[in-house]
Design a protein that fits this description.
It contains 2 helices and 14 strands, in the order αβββββββββββββαβ. By secondary structure, it is mostly beta strands. It has one domain.
Length: about 240
Amino acid sequence: MEPMRLVVLTLVAGCDVVWGVPAQYQQDAPIDVPLIDAARDSETCVTFDGAIEADVILFVNTPTQGHPTEGVMNVGVAVQSQGLLRYLVPTLTARQHIAAVTLIAPYTPSSHTCGTAVTCGSCSTIAADGRIDVEYATSMWDEPVACYAKPTTLTSWQMTGALGAMDRSAPVGHAQYAKGTDLAIDLDPAALQPWIQNGKVSVILTPSLGAVALVPQKDFPTADQACNANQAPTRLQFKVCQ
């Protein structure tokens, strides 16, 4: 009978080749401790522009009068006004979430609001630097009748001026507004969900420190197109990730 031979196989390749473990992790470790942390899957994100669905100016000095059909919204300390705007929110799948929200109000160079009923005036003579705060707001208001005193014909704000905790949130974003520039304000996406109603969300623009911003209303194309035919509308931009 041929004598039994002992064969010794020597592995000449490194462990990173044989076992698929990078060389920097070639070290002793307890068996129940993973050598490599699992990396989080990267998210895929897309951006949607929520279209303006309704808007109105809330004037402190004329509390029962709303202004829903002008071409431009005068949000300013000088006239004691705030802007209430409502936007469509994108429909999400179970895997999606809104990672960022940005309110964008392009600069309005001219309007009848800044001139007369028949003359387009320069809005730069009215606009003023200052601060603009934004709050999320209830969407339970009717554009034709909403005003500082009430949201609909048959209902009231929790507090006059939509100042109640059920009317609006705490500030979710702000910007130092410079006249003659676009207004772009990042809003807190974590505070958004409770204020989405029937696929819509509203925001309130509140000026302070002397700010006067001329914000295009959804009716600008019909009311003021002759003043600035290429005027872009306001929009609420949503970054949706999954």
